[in-house]
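Reviewer 2 asked us to include a model.

Predict the structure of this chain.
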Amino acid sequence: MEPLFHKFCTASFDENGQFSGLELHYEDNFNFGYDVVDAIADEEPQKRAVQWCDEFGNEKMLTFGDISRLSSQAGAFLLAQGIRKGDRVMVMLKRHYEYWYIAVALHKIGAVLVPATHMLRVHDITYRIQAADIKAIIAAESMDLCDRIREAAAEVAQKPMLYTVREEREGYVRIDDKLDSYPERLARIPTTISDEFLIYFTSGTTGNPKMAKHIYSYPLGHMVAAEYWHCVQNDGLHLTVADTGWAKCSWGKIYGQWLCGTAVMVYEFERFHAEQMMQVLEKYQVTTFCAPPTLYRLMAKTGIRREAFASVKHASTAGEALQEEIIRLFYDATGLEIMEGFGQSETTLIIGNFAGMHPKRGSMGKPNPLYHVVLVDENDNPVKAGEQGEICIDTRERMPETLCICYINNDDANERYWRNGLYHTGDTAWYDEDGYYYYIGRVDDVIKSSGYRIGPFEVESVLIQHPAVLECAITGVPDEERGYLVKATVVLCNGYEPTEELKKELQTFVKERTAPYKYPRIIAFTNALPKTTSGKIMYNVLRAQDAKK
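Predicted model (structure tokens):
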């Protein structure tokens, strides 16, 4: 069966064979559940959709026939429970394989999928229930998670219905053991392309998370990432390392991958171990791989087995910038270049190193043709090559179908991020004469010291090259004389001790490899950096900690 990618889009290429344009095709009633999952199941029911395993050796394979049947049965069950089109359902299923058919079930019945990570605490869950007016929560069977959800639900006036899988839990209705009582095919429930489809709570590096609203065309935008950035293979097996509560799951574990004909590999674990991950790659013969920079850094620093990546044809990363030193170490070990990309919970892939391009290490690549990307100064004027600017999407001529429509119930955020016909990402970059973009940092993270503007990433990229440094984060500390001092917060590799001598060595190391004004005048050692649930370093937390001192 030909991947449905070709049915829903037309791609174009420039004279050098590089991907340069994409036009989407869809009907007003497009619904991923019926028009993709059921369509594939009708043509090739035994085609592999999900290959799942966990760290204890358990495994399960689901075909498109399975996903079609189970999603229809789950949809019928939820309808019988009183969940209707437009109701918002929060799903906290970790990396359970049940996520895939339950997500599709919600799409089929027109309910709104609200993914959330299982790591949320009680106050986080309470906030989301109230902010999104959550009708129901479907959670993994973990006793601790179920207890947190039940405690959060007790604090709100409108109590959400509570569901779980695999085990009975007090106050919850178990779903997966009831599905056989429902029909294997669900009659199509009308939806339109402009209906509310999915809500992501943004990672919240500053302030409370915002609710990014996506509509039913959203899955189609992920075809670009799957086909031209992940470079998935029809009937291949793609592994993106992400919890189902992260937007990266939508990027790499369901929509674009299935549209482009590949199965998704799901490895369920509580704590990341590089060797265990490599064993999964080797055992299941994964063909394409994507992981956040944090995991590449851990693998590169702890050792990579070349044979584990023997079946992998393409590697990629996104979430935050990846230092060139890590890209080099990975290439030396595997022969694979890590293709970087950039995007947000509010978007699909905005910038990427696409198939046919000649990647430049350290570059995010070039803009996705689905978006009109511009770099602007603080007055929203375009900047020239080599100049720093904020990454924006120009929406004056066309509102991309794959950009979130708005932040729900947040006029302040809508006015801040959508202005002058531009969507402002809040991230800064520069581009070279060849049109390749290079990440600098969040607008609020740029450090102004003695009149110089210093991007944290450019200092981190040097510091990470030192063999003692496992991870690091660069922030600015207020100073009366210089405005701000550059500070490095460092996590050391095993075998290194935090000493004054090592601080001086790290400072000298940076001085010798970049402009002298960029070196960290302050160095602090820590056991772990504060991160969002999606693995991004929380620079605002580090700055707040310094402000209290």
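The domain at 64-216 is CATH 3.40.50.980 (Rossmann fold). DSSP finds 16 helices and 29 strands in the chain. We have added this to the supplementary material.
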